[in-house]
């Protein structure tokens, strides 16, 4: 069909108008796409390895194995704010599957389009390793409509202490009020599990003629299966835990180590565990951690309590802030998230054959527990 002369004139005029617009001039600065200029939200999602309460030691090299991060959006900032959306932050893809094992950050643009200008929203990031994703059922463990004040991380159905021992979980939150221009925020995720690790030497072959089959680091009660997702009060009264004991027959055993055939070898193992309160002073024979030696059937042959060093900030002498003086306070302390409970060390293992007091040190040197996870798996598999 032939184009009329009048049509050609209109097309030419329209082209001229478009060419003269300032935003389209070759000399004008590049403009953000329209969706970038109206309410786009970017977050820096960071993983922090150190603890908040203790300084990092010189030369410590803390590591993690997070490979998945989910971002949850809550409508508001108080405890009643409901979850309205969640999205995979594509952590592994951002790092091109060359996953960082140290403190790391990524830039992420929020995909959700239903936010309102000028209204406050809470953004919660949760990071897990492969085992943690299964143990805590991430991302489904926070359902649409769940409120900020109700958030917990709990063992999924069928989870065992063996699964928990390998499971890492980090969490953190931040508040953003969307603007018409680009908004930027920062979420720092901190570890919400604790670590327990032990190194032992000279493990006796027999006790009273009975062969020793396994060495354990045990809690005074069955380990918890749930925890607050966001940190609660730490002191003077420790509240950052949920009483939820495992129903497993050996739920008190946090670390299980097969006794080496060569008694000169160092036996070591470690686990991740959920936070737990200290035993009450009224429970005279209950101590937070103890070392146990058992026979091949799990029958207890010997037990020794594990103490804090004198003057440690976690000392439970005052009954965990209750004011009740507890003369056994060095043996009663909470298991706190983002803390590493080290019984002995690679260079100074506990001499089980001696009668020395067993001391636990609390530090943020997560490099040790992560580096020894292969040892944990081997010893657990042999002990099973």
Task: Classify the beta-strand content into a percent band.
Answer: 25-35%
Q: What count of structural domains?
A: 2
What are the segments in which pLDDT stays under 50 over at least 5 consecutive residues?
1-38, 51-61, 373-384
Based on helices, strands and strand pairing, what is the structural class?
alpha+beta
What string gives the helices and strands in order?
HHEEEHEEHEHEEEEEEEEEEEEEEHH
**Rg of Cα set:** 27 Å
> Could you tell me the number of beta strands?
20
> How can the largest sheet be summarized?
9 strands, mixed
Write the layout of secondary structure elements.
Blueprint: H1 5-20, H2 34-37, E1 41-48, E2 68-74, E3 83-88, H3 91-94, E4 104-109, E5 121-128, H4 130-135, E6 152-154, H5 161-164, E7 169-176, E8 183-191, E9 194-201, E10 206-207, E11 210-211, E12 214-219, E13 226-228, E14 253-258, E15 267-273, E16 289-294, E17 300-307, E18 340-343, E19 350-351, E20 358-363, H6 366-371, H7 373-383
Parallel strand pairs: 1-8, 9-18, 9-19, 17-20
Antiparallel strand pairs: 1-4, 2-3, 2-5, 5-7, 6-13, 7-8, 9-15, 10-11, 12-14, 12-16, 16-17, 18-20
Give a structural overview:
The structure is a single chain. This protein is 13% helix and 30% strand. The chain folds into two domains: 39-191, Immunoglobulin-like (Sandwich), CATH 2.60.40; 194-383. The chain has helices spanning 5-20, 34-37, 91-94, 130-135, 161-164, 366-371, 373-383; strands at residues 41-48, 68-74, 83-88, 104-109, 121-128, 152-154, 169-176, 183-191, 194-201, 206-207, 210-211, 214-219, 226-228, 253-258, 267-273, 289-294, 300-307, 340-343, 350-351, 358-363. A hairpin with a 5-residue loop joins strand 16 and strand 17 (300-307). With 384 residues, the protein is of the alpha+beta class. Strands 9, 12, 14, 15, 16, 17, 18, 19 and 20 form a nine-stranded mixed sheet that branches.
């Amino acid at each position: 069909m032939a184009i009329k002369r009048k049509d050609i004139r209109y097309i030419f005029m329209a082209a001229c108008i478009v060419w003269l617009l300032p935003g389209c001039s070759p000399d004008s600065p590049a403009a953000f796409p329209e969706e970038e200029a109206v309410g786009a939200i970017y977050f820096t999602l960071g993983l922090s390895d150190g603890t908040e309460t203790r300084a990092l030691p010189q030369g410590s090299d803390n590591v993690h194995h997070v490979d998945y991060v989910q971002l949850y959006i809550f409508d508001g900032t108080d405890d009643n704010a409901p979850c309205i959306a969640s999205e995979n932050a594509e952590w592994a893809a951002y790092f091109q599957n060359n996953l960082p094992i140290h403190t790391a950050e990524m830039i992420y643009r929020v995909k959700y389009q239903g936010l309102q200008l000028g209204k406050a929203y809470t953004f919660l990031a949760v990071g897990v390793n492969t085992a943690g994703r299964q143990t805590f059922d991430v991302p489904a463990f926070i359902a649409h409509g769940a409120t900020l004040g109700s958030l917990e991380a709990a063992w999924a159905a069928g989870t065992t202490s063996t699964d928990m021992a390998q499971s890492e979980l980090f969490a953190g939150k931040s508040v953003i009020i969307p603007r018409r221009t680009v908004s930027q925020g920062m979420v720092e995720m901190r570890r919400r599990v604790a670590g327990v690790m032990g190194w032992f030497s000279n493990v006796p072959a027999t006790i009273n003629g009975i062969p020793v089959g396994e060495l354990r680091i045990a809690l005074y009660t069955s380990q918890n299966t749930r925890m607050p997702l966001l940190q609660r009060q730490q002191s003077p009264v420790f509240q950052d835990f949920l009483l939820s004991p495992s129903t497993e027959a050996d739920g008190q055993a946090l670390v299980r180590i097969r006794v080496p055939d060569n008694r000169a070898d160092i036996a070591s193992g470690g686990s991740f565990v959920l936070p737990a309160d200290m035993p009450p002073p009224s429970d005279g024979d209950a101590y937070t951690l103890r070392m146990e030696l058992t026979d091949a059937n799990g029958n207890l042959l010997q037990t020794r309590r594990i103490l804090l060093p004198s003057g440690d900030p976690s000392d439970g002498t005052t009954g965990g802030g209750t004011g009740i003086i507890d003369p056994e306070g060095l043996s009663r302390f909470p298991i706190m998230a983002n803390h590493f409970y080290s019984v002995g060390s690679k260079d100074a293992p506990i001499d089980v054959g001696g009668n020395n007091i067993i001391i636990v040190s609390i530090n943020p040197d997560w490099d040790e527990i992560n580096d020894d996870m292969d040892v944990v798996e081997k010893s657990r598999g042999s002990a099973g």
